Amino acid sequence: xxxxxxxxxxxxxxxxxxxxxxxxxxxxxxxxxxxxxxxxxxxxxxxxxxxxxxxxxxxxxxxxxxxxxxxxxxxxxxxxxxxxxxxxxxxxxxxxxxxxxxxxxxxxxxxxxxxxxxxxxxxxxxxxxxxxxxxxxxxxxxxxxxxxxxxxxxxxxxxxxxxxxxxxxxxxxxxxxxxxxxxxxxxxxxxxxxxxxxxxxxxxxxxxxxxxxxxxxxxxxxxxxxxxxxxxxxxxxxxxxxxxxxxxxxxxxxxxxxxxxxxxxxxxxxxxxxxxxxxxxxxxxxxx
Length: 288
Description:
Elements: H1 3-11, H2 17-28, H3 38-45, H4 49-58, H5 64-82, H6 88-91, H7 95-116, H8 119-130, E1 135-139, H9 143-154, E2 161-163, H10 169-174, E3 182-186, H11 193-204, E4 208-213, E5 226-229, H12 242-258, H13 260-276
């Protein structure tokens, strides 16, 4: 991830209201901000010229020109990383190439996600889930499918996992959260206001807040105790959920390893129930 965006993310909590306006504009307009002068950036972010200069110093740069160069370098790095993943209609020579572009972008998403993980925080978040009295999972819109998968697998490990319903009842569920509970929220571009409000509500009630999202502009970051980025870029019309799914698989595997004895015991009980109800097909393919 480009260094200037790391700086913005790590220092956001210490920013003034005006500084946050500048930071938000830079994050939301990565292709425009690098080429604006002091006056142009000030007008775009609705702050004074002096505030822009102070912001550059606050971010650790010797002046605005150095910060502008950092923005331009960050944009160039991003272009180099994504140049080969342009929209299929721009360069595709065939339908097969369109499909290959999607597979290649998914591979890159997983690689970017893996490289961005703070493993110490990843282990700490897993320990938080393990030691929580109850585990809530929150998502809306496209993130619901990933949340369902997380809920399904965590339910094999714990008996205290609850998915927050995407309805008005969600407020009732979140209102029961206490300090010894954990909430895992998933939200990807475009971010759901409903998810954000409930996430903040859980945080205000003292719950440990874990965010799985896809960008430094994600509003979940301001309330999260632990946050993990899963790239969702795609050359197609929809965002990719491949990396978010890969991330939760890794998270489940880490928790499962820590809770191996409990998992084996619980799976034995579930397997017995499956056999009693004849859940799975006994079909055997005919021999050749």
